[in-house]
Design brief:
Blueprint lengths: L7 H11 L5 E9 L9 E9 L2 E9 L4 E6 L1 H12 L3 E8 L2 E7 L5 E6 L22 H10 L14 H15 L12 E6 L5 H13 L4 E7 L2 H14 L4 E5 L13 E5 L5 H12 L3 E5 L5 H7 L8 H4 L2 H22 L2 E7 L10 E7 L7 H14 L4 H8 L6
Parallel strand pairs: 8-9, 8-11, 9-10, 11-12
Antiparallel strand pairs: 1-2, 1-5, 2-3, 3-4, 5-6, 6-7, 12-14, 13-14
Helix pairs in contact: 4-5, 7-12, 10-11
Length: 404
């Protein structure tokens, strides 16, 4: 028996990828379906090797703890069926042969997106106990975690901050995976975090860069809320973190004497994400990391144009129209970044709020703009098919970046 809203055919797709020991890398189950309850906030599955034998490790997370158990192939099938019977809303499976994303709608229908080509090379890590080895631990970041309100004075993760602690480490893992910080051991690293909000991730990134990697890092958080920025400045001062600063203002109006090496924008609304990406491209920043939020600009264009004939059955459904707009917006952003010389991938980033907007765009500058004509051809073909002009393209041309 499989979970509410998922027919057996979809469940078989998940089983087929998870149980393929030649290609499977990881699976993540998150969020509860409408009108249901879950004992776990998240279940993660990955392959491990124990005494030379292949196993699947199932890790179960709630607000207070995480429990990991390892199963040999036969037992793993039974355990996977148990997880599939739980009413999770989002399922993501990744492997060397591509990925599978399943989202259960509010009406209980399964929406399946399947890719047979990974966006970036995937390595299968069979090291045992990797899940519990976090980047920021109680041992290497205890004082910071306590100051951030995540750790109690007696050294325990606060129950109501467990998800934030997991989110911070997941974010830092995704940053670490870019492998983009070579050379900064001997020179300053400048970072700007646009739309930093509560700044938990800003403080964590600063701590990671300066106190874990030992870089001479300078981090600036930017947000519209002046009172919030003032509180963050006081906290940074109390910690003695002189190279962590906060500025009030809009992304498009931000000015700096030193071009940032890294631009971060997590959940900046609509075209604010494009403002952040455009700033990073103009600065020729080494790394650009964005987790887009609401995306309306392209959807307005799509609504005012006749749809491409093959897509009419899809766009006739409001929810699919919205999701197609989201997918197209992020795909075009990634395509533009590639044209501008960035190695780019789109991966899953599950935020603490368990929102459906859970994608992250990671871009690392590796060449000069226009170095590979293939990327411009792909971009123009996609743009031409939909007859749209992305806001990011308009920004770059307006700023003199001459994106053509």
């Amino acid at each position: 028996m499989t979970q509410t809203g998922m027919d057996e055919q979809v469940a078989d797709k998940i089983r087929g990828r998870v149980l393929n020991r030649d290609t499977f890398a990881r699976a993540v189950f998150t969020g509860n379906q409408k009108g249901t309850e879950l004992a776990w906030l998240k279940v993660q599955v990955r392959p491990v090797e124990i005494k030379g034998a292949y196993h699947l490790q199932f890790s179960f997370f709630d607000e207070k703890k995480d429990i990991s158990k390892n199963f040999a192939p036969g037992e793993a099938t039974q355990k996977l069926n148990e997880v599939l019977s739980m009413p999770f809303r989002n399922i993501f499976v990744e492997g060397t042969d591509g990925s599978l994303q399943v989202n259960i709608s509010k009406k209980g229908k399964a929406v399946v997106n399947e890719s047979n080509a990974p966006s970036a090379p995937i390595e299968i890590d069979l090291l045992h106990n990797r899940e519990k080895s976090r980047i920021l631990t109680l041992e290497n970041a205890g004082p910071f975690l306590e100051a951030a309100g995540i750790l109690t004075r007696d050294g325990r993760i606060r129950a109501d901050m467990q998800r934030k602690y997991v989110q911070i480490n997941e974010f830092l893992r995704l940053v670490e995976e870019t492998n983009a910080f070579e050379g900064f051991e001997s020179k300053p690293l400048h970072v700007v975090d646009f739309g930093c909000g509560s700044a938990h991730l800003t403080f964590a990134l600063y701590y990671y860069l300066r106190h874990v990697l030992n870089f001479d890092a300078y981090v600036t958080g930017v947000d519209l809320k002046a009172d919030l920025m003032a509180r963050h400045r006081e906290r940074a001062k109390s910690l003695g973190w002189d190279h962590l600063t906060f500025s009030t203002g809009e992304i498009a109006g931000y000015q700096t004497d030193t071009a940032p090496d890294m631009v971060v924008a997590l959940h900046a609304c609509d075209t604010a994400t494009d403002d952040a990406i455009a700033m990073g491209i103009r600065w020729e920043s080494r790394v650009i990391i964005c987790a887009p939020c609401c995306q309306h600009d392209l959807q307005v264009q799509m609504a005012n144009l006749p749809p491409p004939a093959p897509m009419t059955p899809v766009l006739g459904h409001g929810i699919l129209f919205e999701r197609m707009g989201d997918i197209l917006t992020d795909t075009l952003r990634a395509a533009i970044l590639r044209v501008m010389g960035y190695r780019t991938d789109i991966t899953q980033f599950v935020p603490v709020e368990h929102t459906a907007k859970n994608l992250m765009i990671r871009a690392v500058r590796t060449s000069m703009p226009g170095n590979n004509p293939r990327w411009m051809e792909e971009y123009q073909n996609l743009k031409g098919f939909w007859q749209v002009v992305p806001y990011l393209e308009k920004l770059l041309n307006k700023s003199g970046a001459e994106f053509r």
